[in-house]
Amino acid sequence: MLAAALMLAGTFYAVAPASASSKVTLTLWQNYGTEDNATATTNLIAAFEKLHPNITIKDVAQPGTNYFQLLQSSAISGDGPDLAVMWTGVYDLQYSSFLVNLKGNVPAADLAKMGGLQWESPNFDAAKGPLVMPLETQFYIGFYNKKLFKEAGITSVPTDWSQLFADAKLLKAKGIEPLVYGNGGQAISTEFYPWYDMSYLMIGAHSLSSWKDLYDGVTPWTSSTNEAQLAKWAELEKDGYTNSDVLTNTTNIQQFEKGKAAMLVDGTWDTAQYTGAMGTNVAAFVPPYSNTPIKGVVEYPGDGFSVTKFSKHKTQAFEFLDFLTTTQAGNIINKAGLIPDIAGLKTTNPVNQEMLNFVTQDHMTAYPMMDNYVQVNVGNAADKELPAVLANQESPKAALQNMQQAWQQLPAAQRSTKDFAG
After folding, report:
1. Which sign, positive or negative, has the C-alpha torsion 292, 274, 264, 269?
2. Cβ distance 171 to 239 under 8 Å?
3. Which of 213, 227, 208, 233 is nearest to 387 (CA)?
4. Does 2-137+301-343 carry CATH code 3.40.190.10?
5. pLDDT in tens, 24-65
6. What is the pTM of this model?
7. What is the DSSP pairing of strand 261-267 with strand 177-179?
8. Whether the Cβ atoms of residue 171 and residue 368 lie closer than 8 Å to each other
9. Which among 328, 307, 302 has a CA at the least distance from the CA of 318?
10. What fold characterizes domain 139-299+359-372?
């Protein structure tokens, strides 16, 4: 019944012959590892190939650690994939020299179905056409174990720093690990990915409109506000409210699923895994890294697929991207446990729906993922520094100084939001 309801929200992609009569093979690169995105991609390819029997898509899983370096090298040599997973925001703008704009290549009416296209368009202006077809709507978000909260006598989720520390103290008194960190089995890094938390640290410190001041340098990364936020974050580990092995733990997801920890910060690509393992015992909350009740949440089309300029089969590649705008594709994405980015479609995962409700019902401000917003070199500097801050192996001041230095070394054209062309 739920699937039928989703189908009614739109029309299925019409079965039509591919644009070329001969058989064509497209190569698609992705760096999804074992995430739900990988499952969705496999199933989307299978459905598309069934509709287009003369088009085959070869799904190539690339390592996450150096994915973008491999993609850039393939662009130089001209022997890369036809389709590639691409992160949105500043990432796709940085690599825009070898990505084909979708405006005029995918029907305008189909593009109009997709949300957040401004974040993958030059100058963050959707009218200029996106460089990426979003796969899904993503959240960086907190997950918590309702049973463990109840055991500790916690009746509502924390909404600011003081409540978070108070709840962590109650959990620890019951012998429960309050927060667990680790790399979650991701291919990106052997350490935990710091931008889930950093996004909320900056949400708690700055309004959405003032995030551009961080990009432009009007607000330096070394500001006292930023330093205070990172210092508060580091107190969590210092006070024993996280696992002590935050830099080396690789089983944090399993620990959370088995009730060994009450909370973790992650993304929607793992929602289905949590609901599958924990049932109704898992729920979503907004990481409350704020001195006052948190008012923002990360909701963003964080990645999708692009057509490369060196593709020899662009017409067929655009057909695949157009397929991603259909209800059939949206149903496949939803079934994989993700949130369709297509207007009129909903998620059937209740925890994903909780996340959507933060914006639609609680009227929280939707922020982009900060790692997709800051300059790539600044982000790379932060990747190396921030995990050590939480582990109390580096001071917030030193980490922020390195980020500021990375910003100062940027070419002048990359220091202003006036030119988001990358």
Report:
1. negative
2. no
3. 233
4. yes
5. 999 999 999 888 899 999 999 999 999 999 999 999 999 888
6. 0.86
7. parallel
8. no
9. 307
10. D-Maltodextrin-Binding Protein; domain 2 (3.40.190)
